[in-house]
Design a protein that fits this description.
The structure is a single chain. By secondary structure, the protein is of the alpha+beta class. It has a single domain, classed as GHMP Kinase, N-terminal domain (Ribosomal Protein S5, domain 2, 2-Layer Sandwich). It is built from 4 helices and 10 strands, in the order E-E-E-E-H-E-H-E-E-H-E-E-H-E. A 6-stranded mixed β-sheet has the order 4-5-3-2-1-10. Strand 8 and strand 9 form a beta hairpin. Helix 1 packs across helix 2 and helix 2 runs parallel beside helix 4. It starts with 17 loop residues before the first strand and ends with a strand.
């Protein structure tokens, strides 16, 4: 039996209902919330500020220090609090993706701290976190060459779908599931973050990239609307 209809009834190129908002953490220099359905991420930006200890400073540029974590009760089975191997890996790839678009040469010797917290998880958490962080940097007034938008593209059995949820991640019938989080720049659509969980032929990868571009264009519009002060909540 092939995968002819998504488990939650969405079209193959359809995102889950999106929520997006800036200014959710008043004491941060910039903050934002971004949600795909039940996956909810908030991000806070602090800085740029002098990096200590001084020997870690880059004399000609600033650095982004990113920390991603999940609340213990963000998933059905209580997540162990504190950093894990997975959260450290996601922190690193998120920091790299954000660093690719921030003009760090303007902030020599400084650090920009980006804190991402997953309040609720139903797959695609790193993508929601990156979307929130990109908005939070812009809200903080950090000079960026472009925005970044992120989405998880899946090959479920033989179909390419966007914004994979947990049921699709766990799909085992037919050819099973392959999951690819993409992060793309807003103007040039450069890939600044890509991971692959599963197997994929080259031709299907090209399809996946095209699907990611279409989905990230939609996400960018939500991000831009939120940055103009609109509170987006499609769950209502």
């Amino acid at each position: 039996m092939t995968y002819t209809k998504r488990i939650d009834g969405r079209k193959f190129d359809e995102l889950r209902p999106v929520r997006a908002e800036i200014g959710v953490i008043p004491n941060a220099d910039g903050s934002a919330l971004f949600a795909f359905g039940d996956t909810v991420a908030i991000a806070a930006v602090y800085g740029p500020k002098p990096l200590h200890p001084a020997h870690m400073q880059e004399p000609d540029r600033g650095i982004i220090r990113c920390e991603y974590n999940m609340l213990p009760f963000s998933v059905a089975e209580r997540a162990k609090p504190g950093p894990s191997r997975r959260s450290k890996e996601i922190s690193m790839v998120t920091g790299n993706a954000l660093s690719s678009v921030v003009d760090l040469s303007r902030f020599p010797g400084t650090v920009i701290d980006v804190q991402i917290l997953i309040l609720q998880a139903n797959a695609s958490t790193r993508c929601a976190g990156i979307n929130a962080a990109s908005m939070a940097l812009a809200h903080a007034g950090i000079v960026m060459k472009e925005m970044v938008s992120s989405v998880s593209v899946g090959k479920i059995d033989d179909k390419i779908v966007v914004d994979v949820d947990k049921d699709e991640e766990d799909y085992h019938e037919g050819e099973g599931a392959t999951d690819m989080p993409f992060t793309l720049t807003s103007r040039n659509k450069n890939i600044v973050h890509l991971q692959l969980d599963g197997k994929l032929q080259l031709q299907r990868f090209k399809e996946s990239y095209e699907a990611a571009k279409g989905a990230c264009d939609k996400i960018l519009k939500y991000q831009e609307r939120a940055l103009k002060g609109e509170k987006i909540n499609e769950n209502k």
